[in-house]
Amino acid sequence: MTKKPLIISTDPGIDDIAAITISLFSKDLDVKMIVPTWGNVALEYTLQNTLNLEKFLHTGVPVAEGANQPLVAPKISAASVHGKTGVAGFDFEEATNELVVPGLAATLMYNEIMDSPEKVTLLGIGPLTDFALLLKQYPNVVENIEEIVIMGANIGRGNHSPLAEYNIAGDPEAAQVVFQSGLPIKVAPLEIGNKTHITPEEMREIDKSGEVGHMLYSLFSNIHEPDGDPRIKIFDPTAVGLILCPEVFTIRDANVQIETSGKFTYGASVIDFMSEEVNAQVATDVDVDSFANWFIDGVRKADQGRQ
Ligand code: RIB
Ligand code: CA
Fold this sequence. Notes:
Layout: E1 4-10, H1 14-24, E2 29-36, H2 43-57, H3 79-82, H4 105-115, E3 120-124, H5 129-137, E4 145-151, H6 166-170, H7 172-179, E5 185-188, H8 190-195, H9 200-208, H10 211-220, H11 236-244, E6 249-258, E7 269-272, E8 280-286, H12 288-305
Helix pairs in contact: 1-11, 1-12, 4-5, 5-7, 9-10
This protein binds alpha-D-ribofuranose (RIB) and calcium ion.
Alpha-D-ribofuranose (RIB) binds at residues 11, 13, 15-16, 39-40, 78, 125-126, 151, 159, 165-167, 190, 235-236.
């Protein structure tokens, strides 16, 4: 596999940290830009967490400051899960902002995508505000986008509300813009992350991997699931898995629409596997052991690659 150029829109966030880390050290990905956005916690924290992570990992991928709030929806927060700063459990050394590229994220992403000799894959692991702004400001950008891969949506019960998953609920209007873009879209919904929980044995494996593994172990040990479930769920890496090891997933064609008007249904993902108007491929199952092996191997590669 030649290296896929990738842009990551993210709201780190503990599971985002894991997804970004594995992406940065994958031999099959060329991360061109990281776009921290509001989401789990405020933009000031997601931006600094991104810079601090790159400092810790000794990487130098350009960072574009993303959106500060959703397009229309009221701002929500998952600080109760990820901690006030979004990375409860590990004290990263404070980085300077030298990796931040000045300018609007939509414009910076547009230029990166249109200048790329190969089509660029977009990875969305937070609210999709910045991808929506990109698509609305620069409609021709679709010409050089390979696909959009997201962690988001839910087939059954949501985690933000009975019908809505957090990333989609964070900015339903933005999510609907993405699903109506006509681009190839792959979705790792809540059910996949709920199934690929990390076991205590896998936690110990991760911790033994090295300083990167220990950082992730420390963060995972501090995730507070709202439902009190002691099993550790890492949602965002499942979207990276859809790009790098799609063979471990069961993926089905579907029509996905996002509810943007209902009082009790706002942010709901309406996923229809029976529709003939397919606009997305949705993961409906995963080989848990194969994914766990891939994930732990990705952490090991990060420890080996971090000089
Ligand atoms: O619903 C899980 C998603 O919401 C993950 O991306 C997590 O980081 C939070 O943003
Ligand atoms: Ca996230």
